[in-house]
Design goal:
The complex is a heterodimer of chains A (130) and B (76).
Chain A (H helix, E strand, L loop, with lengths): L2 H12 L2 E5 L9 H12 L5 E4 L4 H11 L6 E4 L2 E4 L1 H10 L1 H10 L9 E4 L9 E2 L2
Parallel strand pairs in A: 1-2, 2-5
Antiparallel strand pairs in A: 1-3, 3-4, 5-6
Helix pairs in contact in A: 1-3, 2-4
Chain B lengths: L1 H11 L5 E6 L6 E7 L8 H11 L1 H5 L5 E7 L3
Parallel strand pairs in B: 2-3
Antiparallel strand pairs in B: 1-2
Classes of the chains: A alpha/beta (130), B alpha+beta (76).
Chain lengths: 130, 76
């Protein structure tokens, strides 16, 4: 397993809600990434975004891990919930909140949106970019 | 392109009760597909969408489909 794949897996395991997107939580460069993040916001779920654009290998390794070919990908407590269509559908039906309650317990509404990078170039493994 | 996507889905879901392919932008690379099939019964949405991605793996891999929206439902 590559080092990058390990770091992606660690991020998925560590972050309660993580969204692999094109762009950042502040600026998505893809309509689907924006839709997924808006769906999380609609239920008041803070999330950690990971930008896949800096290195094509991120997307390759992520898809190899998740068996999901497209971006965005949303994980809750280590489990792939889906892409934009699913997250939007679950948010609209109320199931997203049920899932967050079940997987994260009380308190999942606390926290801040942020974006972290998975770059090799920085001394810290996880660099807050915005 | 719409027709060939529809054919791939028909091959993968021969028992589909509903199967729609919409070219969302008219540009021939942004599609919305809807599949209603008993094959999805009792499957989580993630696995339902994976079956659709599997069916369309070739046009997704070669970039023919640039963006894909998926709606799936079981047939109960």
């Amino acid at each position: 397993m590559s080092e990058l794949r390990d770091r992606i897996q660690e991020t998925i395991d560590r972050e309660p809600v993580v969204a692999f997107v094109k762009g950042t939580h502040e600026q998505a460069f893809c309509g689907n990434s924006e839709r997924a993040m808006q769906a999380l916001r609609a239920v008041g779920a803070p999330f950690t975004a990971v930008d896949v654009l800096p290195d094509p290998a991120i997307r390759q390794e992520l898809s190899a891990l998740s068996s999901w070919p497209t971006i965005p990908q949303i994980f809750v407590r280590g489990e792939l919930i889906g892409g934009a269509d699913i997250v939007q559908e679950l948010a609209a039906s109320g199931e997203l909140e049920t899932t967050l309650d079940a997987k994260l317990g009380d308190g999942w509404r606390e926290g801040e949106e942020r974006t972290i990078a998975l770059t090799d170039a920085t001394p810290n493994q996880f660099r807050i970019v915005s | 392109m719409t027709a060939s996507i529809e054919q791939l889905l028909r091959d993968a879901f021969p028992d589909a009760r509903q199967l729609d392919v919409t070219d969302r932008t008219g540009g021939g690379d942004h599609f919305h597909v809807t599949v209603v099939s008993p094959r999805f019964n009792a499957l989580p949405l993630v696995d339902q969408h994976r079956l659709v991605y599997d069916a369309l793996a070739a046009p997704l891999d070669d970039g023919t489909i640039h963006e894909l929206r998926i709606t799936t439902r079981g047939d109960t």
